[in-house]
Amino acid sequence: MTEETASTERSPRPAGRRRASRAAGPASGAATATAVRVEAPPPMKVRLPRQPGPPPPRQPNRRLVATLFAATALVAVAVLVALTVVMYVGRRDTEQVLAREQRFVDTAAQLVVNMFSYDQESIDESVERFVNSTSGPLRAMMTEGNNTENLKMIFRETNASAETVINGAALEKIDEIANNAAVLVSARVTVTDIDGNNQPSQPYRLRVIVHEDGNGHMTAYDLKYPDGGN
């Protein structure tokens, strides 16, 4: 028997180690390359961070918007009403001013017609109409003494009639303190004798002072240049 000694005992293999092995094949010194197919891993889906977009629109306060709209509409309506009232009042005032000025002119023109126009059948009415349309100094002059009757007598002695045509009348100025207005009147008077013959017409230019009383009634207050003139 062969005695086993410690030197002849197989040494135990270290745990975990494997013996190198060679692939089967010709025992040559050159190593053969073995192709190993390695599958590439599937591509990974990379999720990019989301780009920040604009903030969501801010929802308006509907009640506040409605209130502001109503207030704006009320202000606009109030402004339109105010403008309408101002325009109406201004137009009314303008019309009243123009109407008053025209009344001054018409009163002066009518006075000249009443003063120069007459006929033999209605001399009294013509003279009375003229006198009743006067006031102030002019009326005092016409009613002094027998001036009214003397004028009637003069008309009768002419044994004729007269017709007055107004060529033009214009407002010169207004005295708002005295409520008087000066009106320039241009007239032409044609006298017709008893036989119906017309005499050459006579031109007259007069400045008639018209007075307006507290009730708005207008009368002829005075006459300037009754025989014409500059």
The helicity comes to 25-40%
Largest sheet: 4 strands, antiparallel
Q: So what's the CATH class of the domain at 73-224?
A: Alpha Beta
**Distance between termini?**
185 Å
Overview of this protein structure:
37% of the residues lie in helices and 20% in strands. By secondary structure, it is α+β, with helices and mostly antiparallel strands. It has a domain at 73-224: Nuclear Transport Factor 2, Chain: A, CATH 3.10.450.230. It has a 4-stranded antiparallel β-sheet. Helix 2 packs antiparallel against helix 4. It is rod-shaped. It starts with 61 loop residues before the first helix and ends in a 6-residue tail after the last strand.
Name the features:
single chain, 4-stranded antiparallel sheet, 230 residues, Nuclear Transport Factor 2, Chain: A, alpha+beta
Secondary structure layout:
Elements: H1 62-116, H2 123-132, H3 136-143, H4 147-158, E1 161-175, E2 180-192, E3 202-212, E4 218-224
Antiparallel strand pairs: 1-2, 2-3, 3-4
Quick gist of this model?
This protein has 230 residues and is α+β, with helices and mostly antiparallel strands. The protein has a domain at 73-224: VirB8 protein (Nuclear Transport Factor 2, Chain: A, Roll), CATH 3.10.450.230.
